[in-house]
């Protein structure tokens, strides 16, 4: 499935480029009954390929050329929704933008939580460009991505980017494309010069470092974990000594969960998910079911954890359906998701994962057995969880007013 933002942009591109009459013919040939699309609604994966192939046939434009033009158009289209502001600040130079491409969809995940983005990673950077690897579950979008890259260079950096496809192959369910982006990459020389300059190294103890990152995971080349942050250890106390790829699945980037793959993706955001659900203590659930809701609210020394649970399940508890509320939280939703950066530490001969939990709401936090004070103080984890809860309450009140 894919969001209507892409479908609507293709719809607008065809209408603006070829006219309403052509769009009607395309819609009929593609067997699409909808006249327009809703940006945040999810549609079938087959909609865009059907429309694009029909448009190519009706207009006589080669498919790849049409997809390339659509990619160019898309960057202007997203400006109507304010997403161009994200693109403008993604990087100071073209090299920064390209290196940050894989993280772009992460910034949109709050608006599009079910997005299934491609993976990008860079290699062989030089003063004349960079080699970009593009992996996606969707086939046929290469020239669309190429059009976006060219337009990005012109629109945001006043730079011409020549895209040369080096290879294109199917790897399992994924399309893997290697392309060379040729452009004036003078910023790379500046970065190299900075790296060559000597910098004062300030000593720091590993204990302090681990305290700052409570959800860190340190593992060696055999993938065996030999240090776990305090926050992560509270929910997975037996993780130390296990292989990280036995305990977690790699959700992003779309590569194998191996040492060599991790080493070769230093600029990518990594997202991992526990294979086993978090086993939260059952005594809390029993205490909630055996307590009186009204008395608990009036009690001066009420258990904070109990109050948190009651506030999360809300009316389900008041109606005596707390057991049903707990059952509705399937084990799959209690798997812990972490996202962060993988860094090789040569002094330790290990990789450290500097992660933070992915928490959309307080209820998600409760399911995984975590608390606000488990999260880092130096990043936005706490703010995002609380802000999401506040937005949910505001939306709820708005819906009540409409009714």
From TrEMBL:
Molecular functions per Gene Ontology: guanylate cyclase activity; heme binding; nucleotide binding
Annotated Heme NO-binding domain residues: 3-165
Q: Name one GO cellular component term.
A: guanylate cyclase complex, soluble
User: Which Gene3D superfamilies is this protein grouped with?
Assistant: H-NOX domain, Haem NO binding associated domain
Stretches assigned to coiled coil: none
Tell me the enzyme class.
lyase
Can you cite a GO biological process for this protein? response to oxygen levels
UniProt keyword Cell division, yes or no: no
PANTHER family for the chain: GUANYLATE CYCLASE SOLUBLE SUBUNIT BETA-2, SOLUBLE GUANYLATE CYCLASE 88E
- Protein's name according to its UniProt entry: guanylate cyclase
* UniProt organism field: Hemibagrus guttatus
